Amino acid sequence: MYIEQGYKGSLGTWNFFVIPVLFMLLMGFNYVSTVMLLEESDQSMEQMMAQMIDVMGRNVFLAVNLMIFVVGLLGIFIWVKFINQQSLTSLTTSRKRIDWKRIFFMFGFWAAFSAGSILLSVYLAPENYELQFDWNRFLPLLIISLVLFPFQTSFEEYLFRGQLLQGLGIATKSRAVAWIVTSVLFGLMHAANPEVEKLGFSVMIFYIGTGLVLGAMTLLDEGLELALGFHAANNITAALMMTASWTAIQTDSIYIDVSEPTAFTLVDMIPIFVGYPILLLILGRIYKWKNWKEKLFGRVQNRAYFTQQNPELDTNINNEL
Asked: Which stretches make up the CAAX prenyl protease 2/Lysostaphin resistance protein A-like domain (predicted)?
């Protein structure tokens, strides 16, 4: 009953939408401002990013862009803990304690898979990649990635699969609506990425599909732990191992993709429509998930029923860690 954990707050349902709405307004303002600036300067997003990187350096540019998520994550935690008076545990999981083993297992599993996939791509098409490994530049990147990327990925998870999923679920009483809407919004958040400009809007299928699998993990496992591990592993591995001049993340990675980007095709969708379901089946086997249909498409219990099943709710809310 992960969504129902939202009842453990002291404010109304509206509180779940304050930070997400502010963030989306900020993203919208940033997108419009960027488009206007590009039109005035007659530049592409790739050219603008290249200029900024030339001035700041890749590692500094990356760190500056990630720092905003440190502030964002702390903002969510402060709002939840001190204003809504909901425990961070109940925002994270339906379990009594956050299951760190789940986070680290998923991180290691997906990091190994992602690294293996990148190395396989290099092996199969070596002409598309250049080795640019430089230990003096890679070591700072490694430190920045391990320290700051978890803030970025955790912010997005607590925002979309945490506050928004719980808020929409409680507001609509529908797990499916909460799951699908948050996944679409997660995808749209990436609309301003330079990858969309290069690969076409069809690449949004990848972002929305990733949102769907992360939301499914959260609902089926009744907690954010697996999604937190997956997202952190995905971004950290990509930053350390592969970059390209036209991607949102510009790093001094081990390899650089020098191939000419092409439109997102049906072949590119195989990992989404085949790989992600297989991943869910594997996790379901490991963690013995049951009642898939109910967890993904069932009704969210109302507050009265949830309180009846959890009589300690009203007295222990403010005592949880």
From this structure: 141-236
